[in-house]
Specification:
With about 200 residues, the chain is an alpha/beta fold. It is about 15% helix and about 30% strand.
Length: about 200
């Protein structure tokens, strides 16, 4: 994987974390146990420190960076969806940042809060714990339901399991030229999208 020392600061990756080989880790980056960093993610610790605490994930094509002297922190079980941008912010434990959301400098995403996909969270905004914010710019929508937070927590557990599975069984290979007979599927625990959970009452 592309790992770069920057001015004698070397990224730190716990042996129980999984970082995809196409992710970039630069400088002052600290990744804790059971974390998952997806393909194409950029964790650029050349202005400020980037910290992933235990069990958090930063998914495919996310960007993490900061204003000089600020840190990016994703606390325990933080969940950062595909393509999100974190810039000089703190994501508290069990919080979720949705796909392609942008979270700016000085933002604090409260514990177990959700930032909806495609939202823009302006600098300095404080997302209350256990709440949903959405929009451009993001605004407080409502408190979260218990089933929404449970759904998120279960999804984060799946990413922790994915980190373990990738450490054990993800290897480069050449593609096949045709589909083999009775091709099996990835074995995965059952999961239900949130809109279906809510539709089911």
């Amino acid at each position: 994987m592309p790992i770069y020392k920057f001015e004698n600061l070397v990224p730190v990756v716990d042996p129980l974390a999984y970082v995809h080989p196409s992710a970039d880790l630069i400088g002052d980056v600290i990744i804790g146990p059971h974390c998952y960093v997806g393909p194409g993610a950029s964790l650029r610790g050349d202005f400020g420190r980037i910290i992933m605490l235990a069990g958090s994930n930063i998914q495919d094509n996310c960007t993490t960076h900061s204003f000089p002297g600020q840190d990016v922190v994703v606390e325990e079980n933080g969940h950062i969806g595909h393509g999100a941008v974190l810039h000089g912010c703190v994501v508290r434990r069990n919080a979720l940042v949705g796909m392609n959301a942008v979270v700016m400098d000085g933002v604090e995403v409260g514990e177990a809060a959700f930032v909806a996909a495609m939202s823009f969270v302006r600098a300095g905004f404080k997302v209350p714990a256990r709440s949903l914010v959405a929009g451009v710019p993001a605004k407080l929508i409502r408190e979260l339901e218990e089933r929404e937070m449970t759904w998120k927590y279960n999804g984060t557990l799946q990413y922790q399991e994915l980190a373990r599975r990738c450490l054990a069984g993800l290897t480069p290979c050449a593609p096949l030229t045709e589909v083999e007979p009775e091709r099996h599927r990835v074995q995965q625990a059952a999961a239900t999208p949130l809109h279906q959970v809510k539709a089911g009452g």
